[in-house]
Design goal:
It holds the Pfam family GRDP-like. This protein has 2 domains: 2-64 and 330-481, no CATH class; 79-90 and 125-318, no CATH class. 53% of the residues lie in helices and 2% in strands. The chain is built from 20 helices and 4 strands. The protein starts with 5 loop residues before the first helix and ends in an 8-residue tail after the last helix.
Length: 489
């Protein structure tokens, strides 16, 4: 088949990259008229993809994931990617954390001076994301405590802010850790609320706002970071200098000492070894002061669990980056890609059952379905036990060397068991071509004289694929430029 032909794939990829570069750089003139109003703009992905029948949480949990759930998962991952980018680019958070450009001026032999750029500025800005994760972790642990304390008969659920959802999502993607800490809690049977998350995501700009009626009223962590300096005036000079600073989670085990990494302005780092803050230090602050609220969260959190969750969220960054790179959520073949990923994940579980004790390494599409399944919490445990015969952990801390060896072994077993290639390309062109061929074989809409014998007109199929992918690329390029989106003619 064409997809298996390396030369054809290389031509397909080369042409696709060239078209995208042309659109982004405006070297290729768009053949499509621009939308004049938002109502004329194409809606990508199509809203019908997210529709599902209404079922209870328990019914939803004890099965494989659906296309709609995988699609919402992609929305969430892209929203988290954009959140991280916003944090890293934010000058307000730079100011809150005291991150400034350090320009160096040198004088030459002739007395002329030259100012050099700060080569460390961008790398130092990366610390903002780590600080954000640390706060998100303790905010999640605080939310979890409040959630568990609610009555078991309380059916009303309030969706927490995005940073808390991010940590909850990561917790679920570490089933062994999640089972260890949540097995006896009602959170154990609470799947990630995909429908509510979808309602909160603006997939035009990848922002998140919880529904006013169903959302938690915990303040946005991004807004809190951006305006942190405005809360410093309430602190005493001594407390400002202490800056709530320790080196890492768990660096002190005293229950009356805040174990949080400093987030304050660099003017507070005049002391090399600031004194950790205690409950006595913050008792006079208003109970609504964000500094007191978050200090209390750090004081009350489990340092060991917080450390593990922080590391897990950081590891998830790699997978989020890969999902952004493929951008399946904007792909013209999104539905087909997700349907195939779920089907391949089902085979992956069967391969696990037939080969106990063998390390199975998923491809990216299978991993997406696997991650989505893990977000069913208790339902994931039940379904994998039924299909594989045992609890299936997901360990994302395994080293690259072991993963590479395991991936090749999985590829060999897959080819023997199912008679097909394991690794796929995953680009828009290849995915759209696969979807179109599947559609043509099922519908018989290939324009050829003998569709049942698969002798359909590939030129007709290829033209449809090129037309569809080209339009979707034009839309994405316009979106990235901030231009009006193109319309179909």
């Amino acid at each position: 088949m064409t997809l298996s032909c390396r030369n054809n794939q290389e031509v397909l990829h080369h042409n696709g990259r060239a078209v995208l570069r042309g659109f982004v750089d405006r070297k290729t003139r768009s053949a499509y008229p621009s939308a004049r109003t938002s109502s004329e703009e194409p809606v990508i992905p199509k809203p019908t993809l997210f529709e599902e029948n209404h079922v209870t949480n328990s019914e939803r949990a004890a099965r494989l994931p659906t296309v709609a759930e995988c699609a919402i998962h992609l929305e969430l991952l892209e929203t988290l990617f954009v959140l991280r980018e916003r944090i890293l680019r934010s000058e307000d958070i730079d100011n809150s954390m005291g991150i400034t450009r350090k320009r160096e001026t040198k004088t030459g032999h002739n007395g002329d001076t030259k100012t050099f750029k700060d080569a460390t500025f961008e790398s130092r800005r990366q610390a903002k994301w780590i600080r954000f994760i640390e706060f998100a972790v303790v905010r999640f642990l605080d939310w979890r405590t409040r959630f568990v304390a609610q009555s078991q008969h309380d059916e009303e659920f309030t969706l927490p802010p995005l940073d808390i959802i991010m940590v909850w999502h990561t917790f679920l993607l570490n089933p062994l850790l999640f089972n260890k800490h949540c097995r006896t809690e009602k959170l154990y049977k609470m799947p990630l609320p995909w429908g509510a998350i979808h309602q909160g995501i603006n997939n035009r700009e990848w922002s998140f706002t919880a529904n006013a009626k169903t959302g938690d009223h915990t303040p946005s962590l991004f807004d809190l970071f951006s305006n942190w300096n405005s809360h410093l005036d309430a602190l005493s000079p001594t407390l400002k200098l202490s800056s709530l600073r320790v080196e890492r989670f768990g660096s002190t085990t005293e229950t009356n000492t805040a174990t949080m990494t400093s987030f304050f302005s660099n003017r507070l780092t005049a002391t090399q070894h600031p004194k950790p803050v205690t409950r006595d230090d913050i008792k006079d602050l208003s109970v609504s002061n964000p500094i007191r609220i978050h200090a209390e969260m750090f004081l009350s959190s489990d340092p060991q669990l917080a450390t593990e969750l922080k590391a897990a969220v950081i590891r998830q960054t790699t997978f989020i980056d890969k999902m952004h790179s493929h951008l399946w959520i904007r792909s013209p073949s999104l539905e087909g890609t997700l349907a195939r990923s779920i089907s391949r994940y089902e085979k992956f579980l069967l391969l696990m059952r037939r080969n106990p004790g063998t390390l199975m390494v998923p491809t990216l599409d299978i991993d997406l379905a696997w991650h989505t399944h893990q977000c069913a919490a208790w339902g994931y445990v039940q379904e994998t036990k039924r299909r594989v015969g045992r609890f299936v952990n997901h360990d994302d801390s395994i080293g690259k060397g072991i993963l590479d060896t395991g991936s090749e072994g999985t590829r060999r077993l897959w080819r023997v068991q199912f008679g097909e290639e394991y690794h796929i390309c995953g680009c828009w062109d290849c995915e759209m071509l696969t979807s179109e061929i599947e559609h043509t074989l099922i519908s018989g809409d290939g324009g050829g004289p003998d569709v049942e014998s698969s002798e359909f007109d590939m030129q007709t199929v290829a033209k449809r694929v090129d037309s569809e992918v080209r339009f979707y690329r034009a839309v994405e390029a316009a979106r990235r430029r901030g231009s009006a989106l193109p319309m179909r003619q």
